[in-house]
Amino acid sequence: MTTSNTHLRGRSPRLVRRAVALLACGGALVFAQSALAASTLKDVSYDAQPGGKVELRMTFDSPPPPPKVFTTGNPPRIAVDFADTTNGFSTRHVDVNKGATAGVSVVGAGGRTRVVVELYRESAYATHVEGNTLVMEVSNGPTGATTSTSVVSDPTKVAPSASGGPAISNIDFRRGPNGEGRIIVSLAGSGITPEMHKDNGRVIVSLGHATLPEKLAQRLDTLDFATPVQSINTTSVAGGARMEIRVKGEVETSAYQSADEYVVEVAPKKAAPTDPKLLKGADPVYSGNRVTFNFQDIPVRSALQLIADLSGLNMVASDSVGGSVTLRLVNVPWDQALDVVLRAKGLDKRRNGNVVWIAPQAELATYEQNLADARQKAQDNAELISDYVPISYGKASDIAKLLTQGSLQSNTGGGSSSAQRGFLSSRGSVSFDERTNTLLINDAPEKVRELRDLIGVLDRPVQQVLIESRIVVASDSFSRDLGVRWGVQAFQHSPGGKNVLGTTPDLTTTTAGGTGASAGAGAAGLITQVHNNDVGLANGTVTNPSLTLPGGYNVNLPVANPTGSIALGIIGSSYLVDLELSAAQTEGRSEVISSPRVITANQQEAVIKQGQEIGYVTYQASSSGGGAQNATVQFKDAVLELRVTPTITADSRVYLKINVTKDALNQFVNSPGGGSVPQIDTREINTSVLVDNGQTVVLGGIYEVTKSNTIDKIPGLGDIPGIGVLFRRTSRQNDKAELLIFVTPRILSDSLQ
User: Fold this and answer.
1) Contact 306/221 with Cβ under 8 angstroms?
2) Which stretch of DSSP H or E encloses residue 640?
3) How far apart are CA 452 and CA 391, in angstroms?
4) % the chain with pLDDT above 90
5) CA dist 418 → 22, 517, 573 (Å)
6) CA distances from 649 to 197, 549, 594 (A)
7) How far, in Å, CA of 408 to CA of 402, rounded?
8) Spatial contact of 601 and 394, defined as CB atoms under 8 Å apart
């Protein structure tokens, strides 16, 4: 303190007070920085994983603070911010060059540390904490990973995500200050795994392990916000939720996630340095301030200077620009006036930012040709490097052939030899190793980077589809039969009171019991003997004469296999009456449900079958003659088979080329040459259909109804009302059979593969 007073002696009191305040503020700032920087990033390392994935490990001196992660699409980057953290990692940049990861940069300032993962292409990622280390897994493309952050107590055991994850509490949309659209997804808890990628004019966001409330499953129209975002459609899908963002024009996307929010930004793509109005064949659109010119023989340079002053552009004219021009333009945009001047004098322009270079067209063409030649020469003279790219999901030989094949267009004009090099330069080469499935590339560094990007696009896991099919065979049968048979038998007495058999007294007694007597004592037991067809008198007058009675039934129309019958018999002294009513009714219902299911890759045919091979023997005459026959054993299939080829469309639907067969053995039919052959009931459908993911569709069905009414009757008598039922037999049959085939395709998410 004494030294400080000596040093400040002679100064003004105001200056002394200001210096003391600055010293106090500086000390407080140093103290605050040391207090806020509670963690220190000590090390950043990486490890290559199968499939082109890269595992980054960020080690701290204490448990890492909660990271704030966000991504950008152009250029592709993953940025991880750690608040209240100092950078203790001495290396500023780490080269990775594995899969989609190019490198990692680490910077620290103001008590905050940022780790930037540089990518060759947009890729998904996943993060979790292991002790004092934050682990980030970067995929080899936009699919195949998640973007969640979790804490793992045991590094060797990672708890799987439970089904029915946290709910999405709200979905909001806002317009940013620069015209970008912001979709804000509020999360009710951790564990949701967002993933974003572009797809044909849309931005698809998959929210894995999320529960979408019914009130949020809706379409939001955002046209009135004047952003590239046209609409937002959020739906529930298997394993989470799916958000489809329709955009207009070329856009740049980025996303970042915090503890309770996931934000997607969609901004208009910045214009290229070259003015699109200058492109050949494009209709120019003029938007400059309107001007009026009326000049006679004004020098071209003066006209250009005047336009430069009005537009505020920096304009550079070539030395070869000269001559005069006459202008009379009334209320036209200044950029249109500039084009008029250039066309009148055979000039052209090239724009870079706010600097416009004006020169004759031939001069500009020569310059650009020289520039292209110089670029080509530099590429031809560049030092070649060798690189190897492991292939995970395809065949290295197929990709090598794709990279080296020539243009598919006909080249009858004798094109350059480089056109036959495919995607390689004129000096490049590529080979492959089948054992390790690796590509070996030898080319210029710029070409190698381009080939890595291209291979990263091609070498992706193929999506898989689960196809579930249900075959329902339902039958309902009903039959009813009613039949009748009856007969009447009688015999005649003699006029003199004697029986036709002789001197037998008149037989007039009829009893139900089959015994009785009336006029003569010899009638005892006669009725019983008549029914036994063995007549004889007790007194021995007539012994065993032959007695013939009308036999059988007058009407014989019974049911073949009756389930119930009622019979009635009447026995008289000279007649017999028999009546029998029979009936049968059969009802039957059956259902056969078969449910084959199979998983296959996109555009790969899958076949699953179950059943039996039915063997049978056939006989053929032997060539040696003599009546000998040769026995041959053959087989027929009676199987349930599902044959399907799925194709996943760009809008996440499934196009199915499907064949379903269900065969069953009906019976064996005798062969004329000997033996028997099986008769097969065949049910088959072969079709193609486009189905939404997870939707069940009826491929087809067969509904068969068989009705028959049969009447067997005696002509004339069977049609008499009332008593006609005694002269006819009725049979009624009503059978129904139905075949339905259902199919449900489900696109398997990466977490299920």
Assistant:
1) no
2) strand 629-648
3) 11
4) 13
5) 68, 131, 122
6) 15, 88, 28
7) 11
8) no
User: Please, are residues 126 and 71 in contact by the beta-carbon 8 Å criterion?
Assistant: no
Question: ∠ CA 321-325-328 to the nearest 5 degrees?
Answer: 140
How many whole angstroms separate alpha carbon 302 and alpha carbon 324? Answer: 9
pLDDT of 646 > 90? The answer is yes
Give the Cα separation of 582 and 79 in Å (integer): 91
CA–CA gap between residue 80 and residue 64 (Å, rounded): 12
How far is it, in rounded angstroms, from Cα 478 to Cα 155?
68
Half-sphere CA count of 280, side-chain side, radius 13 A:
2
Average pLDDT for 196-222: 84
Q: Residue 555: what pLDDT?
A: 85
What does the buried/exposed string (b/e) look like for 584-615 if buried means 16 or more CB atoms within 10 Å of the residue's CB?
beeeeeeeeeeebebebbeeeeeebeeeeebe
Q: Could you give the CA distance from residue 469 to residue 646 in angstroms, rounded to a whole number?
A: 13
Q: Tell me the two tokens of residue 728.
A: 């006819």
- What's the rounded Cα separation, in Å, for the pair 356 and 94? 40
Question: How crowded is residue 58: how many other Cβ atoms within 10 Å of its Cβ?
Answer: 25
State both tokens at 62.
């204490």
**In this structure, what token pair is assigned to residue 100?**
């989609």
Q: Rounded to an integer, what distance in angstroms lies between the CA atom of residue 315 and that of residue 355?
A: 6
Asked if residues 563 and 556 have their Cβ atoms less than 8 Å apart, the reply is no
Instruction: Give the Cα separation of 653 and 331 in Å (integer).
Output: 54
Q: 578: part of which helix (H) or strand (E)?
A: strand 575-594
Task: Name the nearest CA neighbour of 146 among 262, 245, 232, 50.
Answer: 262
Name the amino acid, one letter, at 563. T
- Pair of tokens at residue 210: 């999320």
Which residue stretches of 345-460 are H helix? Answer: 361-381, 396-404, 445-458
Q: How far is CA 293 from CA 24, 336, 348, 649, in A?
A: 66, 12, 20, 57
- Measured CA to CA, the distance from residue 680 to residue 143 in angstroms comes to 48
In angstroms, the CA 96 to CA 245 distance is 33
What token pair was written down for 382?
A: 């560049």
What's this model's pTM, rounded to 2 decimal places? Answer: 0.49
Question: Pairing relation of β-strands 39-48 and 85-87?
Answer: parallel
Rounded to whole angstroms, the Cα distance separating 266 from 262 reads 13
Whether the Cβ atoms of residue 571 and residue 531 lie closer than 8 Å to each other: yes
Cα 614 from Cα 681, distance rounded (Å): 13
Distance of CA 734 to the CA centre of its chain: 43
**Residues 676/669, Cβ–Cβ less than 8 Å:** yes
What is the C-alpha to C-alpha distance for residues 112 and 38, in angstroms, rounded to an integer? 10
One-letter identity of residue 642 = L
Q: Is residue 506 scored above 50 in pLDDT?
A: no
Structure tokens at 220: 């939001």
